[in-house]
Specification:
479 residues, alpha+beta, five-stranded antiparallel β-sheet, 18 helices, 53% helix, 11% strand
Length: 479
Amino acid sequence: MITLEGYKIIKKIGSGGMGDAYLAEHEVLETKVAIKSLHSNLVNDESFRTRFRTEAKVHAKLDHPNIVKLIDYKESKEGLFLIMEYVEGKQLDDYIYNDSGPIPEKELLPLFAQILDAISHAHEKGLVHRDIKPANVIISKGKIKVLDFGIAKELSTESGLTKTGVQVGTPMYMSPEQVNGEKIDKLTDIYSLGVTLFYMAAGKPPYENSNAIKMGIRIISEPFPTAKEFYPGVSEKIETIINKATQKKKTNRYQSCEEFKKALNAPSQQTTVQIKNPLEDDLPGQDPVSKKVLIRAFIALAVIFVVYLFSQMGDSGEEDDYESYYQSAKQYQEDESYQSAINDYNKCIAIYPDRDSIFAFIAQCYYEQQDYENAIRNFSKAIDFSNSQNADYFFGRGNANYKLEKLDDAIKDYTETINFLQLQDTANQTYSNAYRNRGIARYETCQEGACSDLKKAGDLGDRKAYDEYKRISNNNECD
């Protein structure tokens, strides 16, 4: 735990490659802040000190209601510290997975507009974020805050933004030019914004989170996925916007956040066809036979049009039913009426049978009922249907396997969890829990790596895991 004069450290709230984040309170003003500290093992490395100072200078240029504010920067014998505005909310990816699922368009539009406003402000200041993704967006009571400008760069810096051949960003959200290690600019942010919009609209990211090399090949060589294939409720308007934002050629994308937002706010284009009734007037130059052909053609078109209308009404009805069952199930789950929740989630599956998040919710309910076999079965279905191989699904299945004392299977699932989160560069609570649980399972089965797992969880802020590591190591029981 860090110490910083003038602040009372309350708890650790996050960890990343360069530093840790803490919730703290000013000792005089009693206001809560978030403090980001450079890792103690990097404090004496001048290159990392320079990067940390650069982050502070970059962030100090930003002053926008949708960007987490930098309050102060401090250096002491104990380390280097960014004192930042504390926002109590959820990361956008957690909100989508645990609360909303695909965000309805009425809610999506104003939320995403706030993200565009934040990045537009950064661009006006000559900065490019370079790592836009839902995990770097906080949502709190309908308000958005963008954070983590740690790898943001100024457009005026030497050689553009980064050295040729160097990849910067999170693989899932990288543009083709980032994958290729080419020079990047604000249009790279536009691409990442398009991927983020996809996630918000479809409820999941566009690519399987297998490995960075395969993902990079897909980003460069394959057409960008269609959001409707992931969630049928995505409108044509949103689909069109995502498609333009994620064009492989930069000049084909929106050229600014303002242009992006203008498309977002434009009314949906509804094409209406004016069909003149051929029975009202004789058409010049047409004989009676031709008129009969035209009438039959008109009748055929009218029938097709009516069938189309009914089919569209059916789709809309299904979506309404799905939303109703989903909201009901979520409420039952929150009220701990797990069987009722399962019943309504199953009704959702009857409408959309390949919805991985619903299988995961069902699995969670079975887990709470201590029906671990059914929990495993449904987590497995969620994994099978998932296009993103959600780490939480593996973690949930690992916990259920652990409860059934299937420790080898649990270890495999915890390992998958860690691998996916490492690929995403996401050091969250699930990440540390997976290390802790794998360490315990390895210890109980006398497998190598127990101590290193528990120590890693401790380094990520899990005090109990660190205490267990110390106990085992003091008893010479490591590995």
